[in-house]
Structures are given as C-alpha cells and as structure tokens.
Amino acid sequence: MTQDEPELGPNIQAGPPSVDADDPFLPERIRQLVERERFAVLATQGEGQPYASLIAFALSEDLSAAVFATPKDTRKYRLLMKCGRVALLVDTRSQGETDMMKIEAFTATGTAACLQPGAERERWARLLVRRHPHLESFVASPDTALFRVDVDHYFHVGRFQEVRRWRPHPSG
C-alpha cells in the first residue's frame, strides 16, 4: 500500500502483470467497480492543457483494454488523434456516498488508438453496444470514431488515499 500515486513517466517499463502484495484481489475489485459504474472521465491533453470528458465505456474481459466512441467533429477527437496518451477515471461517487473514506476509484492510464473500419472495429463496437444498447446508432454512424485504449496501469484508490497499482499486460 502506498499513500500517494507513484511518479510514473511515459517510459514506464511494462514488465509482467503485478498486483500489490497486500491485495491479490485487485483485478476483481476493478472488475466489480466497472460493473457498477457505466461511465468514466476521459483525460486527454493538447493545446497546452489537459481536458476531461465524460464517456460511456466498456472494458475487455481481461481488463487490458477499454473502448469508447466520440463524434469526429469534436475537440476530444482532434486531441486524441494528436496525442493518444490518456487516463480514464471511474469512481463510486454516483452511489450517493457522502463519506470520502468509502468512495472507491481507479484510474487506468494507457494509449488510445482510433479503430478503422473492419473486423476489429466491429468486435469492439459490439462490446460497447452490449454494455450501452442506447448507443447502437451512434456507434454505427460514419461520423463517430471508436477508440480502443490499451491499458498500461490501473491505480486503485480506496479509503481516500490508499493507492494500489496493477498492470494488466504481461511483458512480451
């Protein structure tokens, strides 16, 4: 357990999957949080500053990647096309919890890539629409871009400042 997020730069060594020694069930805790929360805050960067956007998302079964959709005629799309380094924040604030010690969150850091038409895009589109059926026509629109985020690290925060890290990708 650490008291604050470790300093990590863009050249983090991926290494094997890791779970902090004091919580081997962290991937399952992340999965449970995702099942409860259907939206995330996407952090992008560009034009000399950070931006945050609310998105509907879905995660792969192994938690190694996320998918979301955005209109192509947006600042979010332009920023993502220039710089794919992103963070996704998912938290339990919407559960109406008023005690900060009980709110749980994770930040997933990684790289977003726009999916081109084809089988891979269709597979990810199905995953997103399965979780958010109301987005079916939006996802299918030619004016909508679909982005996959390959997750490098998860930072899980519980009890206000207990931070644990997990890397979903094995080294390769």
Feature tags:
globular, 172 residues, 4 helices, 9-stranded antiparallel β-sheet, Pnp Oxidase, Chain A, alpha+beta
Could you explain how this protein is built, in words?
- With 172 residues, the protein is α+β, with helices and mostly antiparallel strands.
- The protein has 4 helices and 9 strands.
- It has one domain (18-167): Pnp Oxidase, Chain A, CATH 2.30.110.
- Strands 1, 2, 3, 4, 5, 6, 7, 8 and 9 form a 9-stranded antiparallel beta sheet that branches.
Give the gist of this structure.
With 172 residues, the protein is of the alpha+beta class. It is built from four helices and nine strands. Mean pLDDT is 82; it is low at 1-19.
